[in-house]
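#struct-pred

JT: dropping the chains for the assembly here, can someone run the whole complex?
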Amino acid sequence: MTDANRPLSVFDRPNSYVGKTVPRPNAKRLVQGRGRFVDDMVLPRMLHAAFVRSPYAHATIQSVDTSAAKDVSGVVAVFDGHRMQTLCEPWVGTLKHLAGLRSPPQYPLAVDAARWQGEPVAMVVATSRAVAEDACELIDVDYDERPAVADAESALDPDMPLVHAEFDSNLAWTRTVDAGDVDGAFVDPDVTVVEETFHFGRHTGVTLEARATLADYDPASDQLTVYYSGQAPHMMQAVFARHVGVPEANIRVISQDVGGSFGIKIHTYGDDMATVVVAKALRRPVKYVADRLESFVSDIHARDHRVRGRMAVTKDGKIAGLEIDDRTGVGPFSAYPRTSAIEANQVLNLTGGPYRIENYRARGEVVFQNKCMMSQYRAVGHPIACAVAEGLIEKAADAVGLDSVELRRRNVIPDDGYPCSSASGLKFADLSHEAALDRLVDLIDLDRLRHEQSELRAKGVYRGIGIAQFIELTNPSPMFYGIGGAPIAAQDGATVRLDPSGTIHVATSVTEQGQGTDTVMAQVAATAFGVSLDQVRVTTGDTGAVPYGGGTWGSRGAGIGGEAVYQAGRALRDNVLATAAAILQSSAGDLDIADGTVVDASGAERIALSELAKMVYYRGTELPNDLQPELVATRHFRVTDYPFVFTNGCQASYLEVDPDTGLVRLLDHWVVEDCGRVINPQLVDEQIRGGVVQGIGGALFEECLYSDDGQMLNANMADYLVPMAAEMPDITVAHIETPTSTSALGAKGAGEAGTAGAPAAVMNAINDALKPLGAKPLTTHPMTPQRILRALGKV
Amino acid sequence: MKAPDFSYLRAESVDQALDLLARHGDDARLLAGGQSLMATLNLRLSAPSVLVDLNHIPDLAGITETETAVRIGAMTRHVAVERSPVVARHLPLIAAAMPHVAHAAIRNRGTLGGSLALADPAAEMPACALALQAVLEIAGPGGRRRVAAADFFHGLFETDLAPDEILVAIEYPKAPAGARWGFRELARRHGDYAMVGLAAMVEGDPICGAGRLAYFAVEDRPVLAHAPASKLVGEVIDDTAITAAEDALDADLDPHGDLHADAATKRHLARVLTRRVLGDLRTV
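RK: done, full complex below.
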């Protein structure tokens, strides 16, 4: 449905905040340094934890001598793996719906064997972090180094050592998708087949605020409070309950200000768990804040995929078949409770997703290795799926002599073709590939860009244009995790309460980690209920204060949490109007709430909300005796009918490659995306831009470099290159708005879109730039100067 | 991470700093701008028991000029050098290189002397000192001595400085009339250590006299490449001379690979930089 045909709704009212950029209520607090992050918290009798981490990728731990560390003044306790084992139930990173996935039990500290460089081996708790670190240096661990499995590609070779002796191989999980007649499609004499192998290096989240946990246990009431820098407080409440031995009802997890997360802070980490375990054992608050060096070797890494792909294309540019083979290395354990198989699963599900492809086969193999653990990070699987398909499409277009935009046009699912399903079984609705591609071509002025490119080539300047079409998985339903047995809610709740001052208070289970969730929730509540934005307060990130829900991940905050807030706001409005009708001897249907006041059909003020609320709360004698007003309403929302609500979009990159140095200068970047109803344009655009920058990071800069024996070589901010502002292009964002029919609000997610498409767009642009120089296509991410020079045959 | 415990001693004069060094020997480190030292302390890569702070010695910072030279105190901040009109006029190579030294926040604290004394092989200032034939003034228990930049850099983070000595000033000859200079570096991000860099100074215009090409981020110390420089002597800088210099480069450079560029890539990039920097200086 186009915008013009859509009936007017509450979102079109003149005082609607939906669709408007508004100042962020929490921005001033954060820029003035008034944020309250975990490391800002100081509790009485608080102790500090530090960890000894394995210097080897794979080693037997013969002994851990903690005696000297215990003697250090200020040290309160020292733990090795065996002692920790007695205090904590192990966890296993598997889920029922990922059939065959295996991973051994994991403890907070390594027991008898260390399986990655950086795995926590011993823990010191002391009166200061500095003392704890001093004591760590005195712990004598006797390691017997073993051969390491570093390279995922060879991890299944028969002569490779086993990461876990109890398993017969280093295979963690495998899955095959086989739809249509792939073999038939590829042997058809009328098709052209292109193939390519892609590599995606490991990178990691590098959140501005590192992981941080402060656990406070009160033995008198068996009450555990955990201040936790994370995205899913309720999930962590359940996780701590299962493994620390405190009833779930007695655990409160508080995630107030969180300085970035990107999926890093949604997993169970041994050091965090040990911190909670020890706080309980010592009956004193214990704080642990990862430092930057530890973050690089303990925060989950992302990607690490090798994908072989081939595509069959008919003469008239129809994709007749697609086949991919993905090998990914996930470190020694599957992460808990989300597992480390989801990314490979997503690659299998998403590759080629924008296109009508009947014949599709995909094989994924997830292998153990002696490297830092790998798991879900922003845009799980998306950039890999997108780069593989879009890279093959460029190659196919060349092979059949078609412009690649035209090839995409001939294959995308048409905008009037929904609902439909992909070959991998994904259900799609409300997407707009055709409109988005048209908009992108228009936005970048492709003809002018091509003209400029060819003029500059004549002068020895090599610029490239790269395009990528993507789908984005958002608003996940219980089909994502809950179905597999994980304590992860797919529904979220919101409670909206009218206070005597006439303000409303929103408590919601989705969380804020810097992206503006609080602002968006306030906008939705204000609009749904009928007050101005300054009359809304929002609470998030406290299991003791908000309804039960999943938190913010998987691009679900606005789409799921926002819908819950919307429904709760409307329900509260109904409650208030019923109360007002009784007070005013009117009918609720004849009344409305506008700008903090109950008004009649003509818009005339009947009673201010503050007056109504004061009457209810303080002067109940003025109310009819049979009226018990409920000036609070709670609603929950989950996506039904669809496992996920997909969004779509496309990106373009314009860049210049210096063929002598291999350096890439990013000139421009464009994104057209369809996240359904846009609640706050600026916040959506900034989500997209941030995502693009992280995608560019993976495409050009970020890589966890490992030696052959599993040592991470660049685990510091000098050698690990995060994308920086100076190197980033301007990023233009445009929207197609096709609201999802799964909710009244119509919002889909927008958190993955930028990261999903940027690497493919940059890769295609580099290869476009280098095409006249006869370079071998760049398909290894990040595309570093050295890799570009090698592709050009210069080194 | 937190730095291990250390004692902090604030020196009020060079002599006092020398005394403190003599007293504490190998246990002591000098604290200049702290832009490298503090990081290594916090990473526990370095654990001196005593830090001798040079930041409060009044006469260690400042830029002065004589008829023939510019003298820069070792504790002069990068930012002061970057903004100095004297440097801009007489040491344009340094002025051109300064914006490449890390980031503005680091240049606000980092010092010229600290950079030279640390002798990071990928740093800009050591290479500029070689190209400009700087002389380093060193104070020690036996008095002061002067060392040519060419004799100062011994290897990876190793210099001619003895443990009981302090670098107090750097003296750069003013650029002679007709001198030409060029500076470029190739880094993956602005402000990073370069994959390869080149600081060049050539006397004479249009016919070249002596020239010095100082490469950095290639070996364990900045390298003066004599062979390519010699190809320029008596020549105008044109395509022929540039090609001759570029072709002579291999004889003088033995690059060590790092995380971002292996030896072959560095060798290639050094050639590219040679062509580009000399191209900046070309006469025709």
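JT: nice. Chain B has a mean pLDDT of 96. The two ends of chain B are 55 Å apart (CA to CA).
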